[in-house]
Predict the structure.
Amino acid sequence: MKLSEVKYSETVIITKILGHGSFRKRISEMGFVKGKEIKVIKNAPFNGPFEFKILDYNVSLRKSEADLIEVVPVGSFDETLNGNHTGVIGVKTALAVQSQKSHIINVALVGNPNCGKTTLFNHISHSKEKVGNYTGVTVDIKRAEFKAKGYTFIFHDLPGTYSLTAYSEEEIFVRKFIYEQTPDIVINVLDSTSLERSLFLTTQLIDMDLRIVAALNMYDELEKKKIEFDYTGLSRLMGLPFLPTISLKGIGLDRLTDKVIEVFEERDKITRHIHINYGNDIEESIQKIRLKIKEDKPITDKISSRFLAIKMLEKDRHIKELLSQYPNFRDIENTSMKEIRRIEVLFDEKSETVITDAKYGFIAGALKETFKNPFRKEKTRSEKIDNILTHKYLGFPIFTAILFLMFYATFNLGSYPMNWIDNAVLWVNNFISDIMDDGMLKDLITNGIISGAGSVLVFLPNILILFFFISVLEESGYMSRAAFIMDKIMHRFGLHGRSFIPLIMGFGCNVPAILATRSMRNRNDRILTMLIIPFMSCSARLPVYILIISAFFSKYESLILIGLYALGIVFAFITASILNKTMFKNKETPFVMELVSYRLPTMRTIIYHMWDKTSHYLKKIGTVILLGAVIIWALGYFPRETENSKKSASTTENMITGIQYSPQSGSGTETHGQSGQLANSYLGRIGRFFVPVMSPLGFDWKMSISLIAGLPAKEIIVSTMGVLYQSDVDESTVNLQKKLQNEVHQSGKLKGEKVFNSATALAFLIFILIYFPCIGVVATIKNEAGSWKWSVFIILYTTALAWISAFVVYNIGSLFI
Ligand code: GDP
Ligand code: MG
C-alpha cells in the first residue's frame, strides 16, 4: 500500500520508493529508505501534510510525496497472525513481507518498433511463468511475472516508439505508463545497427531522470559488420549501463537481469543522472521555466521538473494539459511562451527543432568517442566538415590559427574605430572645458568623469570585435569542436574539455565566462574552472597592456602582448594541476561533448549575443568605472592647499589621447605643480602607505595607487595613471607614454632614477595580469560557488602569486639592465 493510505498511529515498514531520481534522492536524505520503520503521527485531512516519526524524529511529507512511498503495515500482522499483539512478531512478519515486497522489480521495456522488445520479453519470461496479453485503451501491452535470482520480476512490453513526444497514441501511452505506473527500471531496448536513431529515445528517458538499463539488441548484426564499439565507454559517458544482447538466441539476457537487479539495488557504479546539455541559450530557458514549475511541488515529485520544462519548450500539449491544473499555470505558460519566442528568433527555427538538434548533437558527440564504423561513408555535411576540423593532426593547428586570427583582428581592426572614439571624447572634453569656468565642477567633469569613462570607452571596438568572434565560433558549432580537440590536453591538467569554452570566453570578460561554467554538471569541475578563469586575460586588462607596452616595448609589441596572454594560460593550467592534486582530487567524470551540426550563424544571433555582452560592458562603464574614476579623482583632488594646482583642458586631453595615439595640440596651460598637489592628496597618502610592500617590485606610489584603483575594474588603472602622471614640465603635447618614460623617483634611495625601465614595466604588466581579478568576478564566484570561501581564496591566491611573479621578474630583469 501507499504511505498516504496509512491510518493515524499505525506503524509501517517501507518497501519501495518510486518516482524519478532526484525525488528518490531527496526523500532518502530525509530518512525514508527501504526497510525503515515509520509511524504515522499526523494524518491531516483535506490533503494537508502528513507527519511521520522515523527513528526518533518527526518528518512531514505532502500527500503527493507519500503517494510515491510503498509500505507494508506492521499492525495488521499482529491481528491476522497472532490474534494477539506481541509487537515483535508483528514487526518480524512485516519485515519478512517487506523483504518480499521490496524484491519485486517492475520493469518496462521501451524502445523503437522492431528493435526486438517482444522477442526479448518472450525469451526472458516465456518458459518460466505466465505471459498475459492485455489491451490498453488503444494499444496492446504484455505483462509477465516470473521469479529469478531471488526477485520477482514484472515485465511490461510497451508499444514501440521513436520518441516520447505527444505525436502518436503509442508515444502518449508509453509516457503515461511511465508517470502512472512508475516502473522501477526501464529497459531501453536499442537496435544496435541503428544506434543514432535508437539513442534519440534514450536521451528523452535521460531527461525524465529514470533508472535505465540499455540493451544493445541485435548485437550479432553489429558484430558481423566488424565495427569497433566501446560500449562500456558509452555507458560511462551517458551514466547508464549498456549491455549487448541477442534476444533472438537469448544471449546476454542473464547479464541483463543481473544488471537490472544491480541498478535496482543501487549497486551499479556507472549509473548516475546526467543532463543533456542543450547549449547556453536553451539551458537558460529551461532554467527559467523550471523555476516556475518547481513552485508546483506535487507534480515535480512525480515528474522531473527539468523534463517538464524541456517539454514546455517543445510545446508539448499533453504536458500543458497536465500542468494546467496548477495554480500558477498561467505564469508557467507565459514564461514558456516568452522563452520559445526568444529561442525561435535567435535560432530562426522552431524551438522543438532546436532541441532535437541538440539531442542529436549529444548523440553524435557520444558516438564519435566510442563508435568507429570504418565502412560507413559520411552522410551529413557536418560529418564531412568535422573530418577536417577535428582531424587528428590538422585539428590543433587549425584551431590555433583561428585563435590567432581572432586576436589579430581584435587588436588591429580595432585600432581604427578606437581612434574615432578617442577623438570624439577629446572633442567633448575640450568643448566642456571651453564653455565652463575653471573650478572644481569643471575638474570633476573633465578629469574625473569624461576622461575616466572615456579612457575605457575607447576600447569598446576591440571588445565588440572579440565578442563578435566568440559569438560566431559559438553559434557555428565550432566552439564545441574546439572543446573536443582540447579535451585530451585539458585532461592532463585535471580539467574537462568542456571547461575550455568558458576559458576562451574569459578573454572577453571573466564574468560571463564564470556563468558559462553552469553547463558543467560536476561541481568540482565547475569550481576548478571558475577559479582559473581569472587567469584568462580579460578585455579590461587590454588597455593597460597597450599603454605600458607601447611606452616601453615598442620593438616587441605583439610578442609581449601574446606572451602575457600565454603566461596567463600557463598560470591557469599550473593552478588547475595544483588544485586538482590537493583540494579537489577530481575523480574523472566522463562527459559527452555535444557535436551539434554546423550552422551558418545568423546576423541576428550574433548581434543578440554581442549586444548581450556589450551592454554588460557599457553598464560597467556607466557604473563601476565611472564611480571608480570619480572616487580616484576626489581622492587626488582633496585636500586642496595650493592655488596653483588648477587643472586644464590640456591635461585631460593628454590623459585620453595618451593611451596610445599621438595627442592633438591643445591650448597649453600650466600643469605645473600638479604632482606636488597629488603627492599631498589623500591618494598620495594611501599610495605611500603601500610603498614598503610594493617597492621590492620596483613600483612607486603612483603605480601602487593605480593598482588599488583597478580593484573595481582593471580599466580604471589606465584612467588613474592618466590622472596621476602629470608631468611637471610644462609640455602639453607630451602623451601619457612619454610621461611614464620621463617619470623619475622623487625620493628614497632611487631618487632621480627613472621609475620605469623594462624590468619594472614587465613586472607591472605581470602584476596586472595576475592580481585580484575585479570585484565583479569575486562577487560572481561567490554567487556561483555558493560561498565566500572560494572568493577569498581567489583574492589571496592571485594577489600573492602576482606579487611573487612580479618580484621575480623585476629582480631577474634588473640584473640585465
Ligand atoms: P519489437 O517490435 O521491438 O517487439 O520487435 P520484435 O521482437 O517483434 O522483433 C523484430 C524482429 O527482429 C524479429 O524479426 C526478430 O526475430 C528480430 N530480432 C529480435 N532480436 C534480434 C537479435 O538479437 N538479433 C537479430 N538478428 N534479430 C533479432
Ligand atoms: Mg513488439
